[in-house]
Write a structure and sequence with these properties.
Layout lengths: L4 H14 L8 H18 L4 E7 L2 E4 L2 E3 L4 H13 L3 E5 L4 H13 L6 H8 L5 E4 L5 H6 L2 H20 L7 H16 L3 H5 L8 H19 L4 H13 L9 H4 L7 H7 L2 H11 L5 H9 L20 H15 L11 H11 L6 H11 L7 E4 L4 E8 L2 E11 L5 E8 L9 E4 L15
Antiparallel strand pairs: 1-2, 1-4, 2-3, 4-5, 6-7, 6-10, 7-8, 8-9
């Protein structure tokens, strides 16, 4: 099994911690270095060059960002800061002697910044070199969640247009859009998620597709998917409902209960969607399965019934959670949306039957007790909208205070960024309808 980027960073950290006690020639360090090189060799099978660096002071390795670094990852980030380099490039062909020479240069701590490359070359190190972090257009793009989200909407609109005309849509633009969403999700996990709460009720089907993609990334990230796997589940979420374009729009938008005949029409959309995807270029099989089986349910009592025994990727159950979360938090002609906190309860109610229970819990833990989009009352009676959360850390939560303690509405809202968990004392959730609030008006 290929070692993950996170595990390799842990090995780098352990090796450099060991060097505080031993020289690079010590058997302990040599063993750690050999283990690290073996792990890198697995990655070199896929890429000849691997970059480790800091992007806006956030550690990245290869194509994975570590926005919330572990102590080991922070050690590696500090190493780069100490060396005064933006990054290091590891090149296929790196051998043990070269790596030990690299460690020796680092251990001495006398060579930094621009002098590091020549010092490494003098030591015969040709397969590790300092490198700058290029901020490409894609990087700039990735830092603008709204642009990334809007681009995804445009791509879905084009895809839906092609399908309605009977054409097989291109997958290239969808893949690029998802790539941008993954980069934003890894660097700022809640920015896109907040945008998924801005619903376009007139274009429910394709905004739902983009929102399921965004929420699938949140579920996948909570369940520990790699960046590459996130690109797959993100694409699956985006394209999961293509088959609905083959269903009469009057059935899709019908308020109230469907007739048995209408429901039978609805039940065809997973197969129709999978058929379209199988004709599109470079679509991974997991994406086809997400479209085909996102209504199969965790207990496999859903539809299409002829796929109940099929061995499926875990991504199918993750995407199903995203599909459910977006559906129950969306206002439709026959349904008032529930709040994010109420949605958590509904997810738990369906865990173990319709939804995968462990994935549901991981997603809920990542959302925090009051997910982004929750309107909450504080201990001092102020009412605010949660715009960012830090998982288990309440101190990382951010709010926009919409109502002062005496009840007056604040215009503009006041930002509240508590320095500690003690400063943030939420006493309960407030229904936005009761305050006449459209939360989308306050989400950037």
């Amino acid at each position: 099994m290929q070692t993950s980027h996170k595990e390799i960073l842990q090995r780098i950290s352990r090796t450099f911690q060991g060097m505080r006690l031993y020289s690079p020639a010590h058997p302990t360090i040599r063993k750690q270095a050999q283990d690290l090189l073996a792990a890198l060799a697995g990655l070199f099978l896929h890429k000849p060059r691997l970059k480790l660096g800091l992007l806006d002071d956030t550690l990245f390795f290869d194509d994975e960002l570590f926005a919330y670094p572990s102590p080991a990852e922070e050690d590696v980030a500090n190493l780069l800061r100490t060396l005064e380099v933006e990054g290091l490039e590891f090149i296929s062909g790196l051998g043990a002697d070269e790596f030990l020479s690299f460690l020796d240069v680092i251990r001495q701590g006398e060579t930094k910044g621009e002098e590091l490359e020549s010092a490494l070359l003098k030591k015969g190190v040709h397969h590790i070199r300092p490198t700058s972090v290029e901020k490409t257009d894609d990087d700039e793009f990735a830092r603008k969640p709204r642009k990334v989200y809007d681009r995804a909407l445009r791509v879905m609109e084009d895809i839906f247009h092609d399908v309605r005309l009977g054409k097989i849509p291109s997958s290239e633009e969808a893949m690029q859009a998802v790539k941008g969403m993954v980069e934003v999700t890894l660097s700022d996990p809640h920015a896109l998620f907040a945008l998924s709460l801005i619903k376009d009720y007139d274009n429910y089907t394709f905004t739902h597709s983009v929102n399921v993609s965004v929420i699938s990334l949140a579920v996948g990230r909570a369940c520990g998917l790699s960046a590459e796997e996130l690109r797959v589940i993100g694409l699956g979420g985006m394209l999961h409902d293509l088959g609905k374009l083959k269903v009469d729009v009057g059935i899709i938008t019908k308020p109230g209960r469907l007739t048995q005949g209408e429901f039978e029409q609805i039940k065809k959309h997973p197969r129709d969607g999978a058929d379209i995807l199988q004709q599109m270029k470079d679509i991974p099989p997991e994406v086809v399965d997400i479209a085909l089986c996102h209504h199969l349910q965790y207990d496999r009592k859903g539809y299409p019934a002829d796929n109940r025994g099929k061995l499926l990727s875990p991504m199918v159950d993750m995407a199903a959670i995203a599909d459910a979360y977006d559906a129950i938090t969306t206002l439709r002609s026959y349904q008032r949306p529930v709040t994010p906190r109420q949605a958590i309860k509904l997810l738990r109610d369906n865990a173990g039957t319709r939804l995968h229970p462990q994935f549901v819990e991981r997603f809920i833990q990542a959302l925090g007790p009051y997910p982004v989009g929750s309107l909450v009352r504080l201990q001092n009676n102020e009412i605010g909208l949660v715009t960012a959360v830090g998982g288990a850390s309440r101190s990382a939560t951010r709010l926009k205070i919409l109502f002062a303690s005496e009840g007056s509405k604040l215009d503009p809202p006041r930002l509240f960024c508590p320095d500690s968990a003690d400063e943030l004392s939420i006493v309960g959730e407030v229904d936005p309808f009761s305050k006449g609030i459209e939360i989308a008006d306050y989400l950037d």
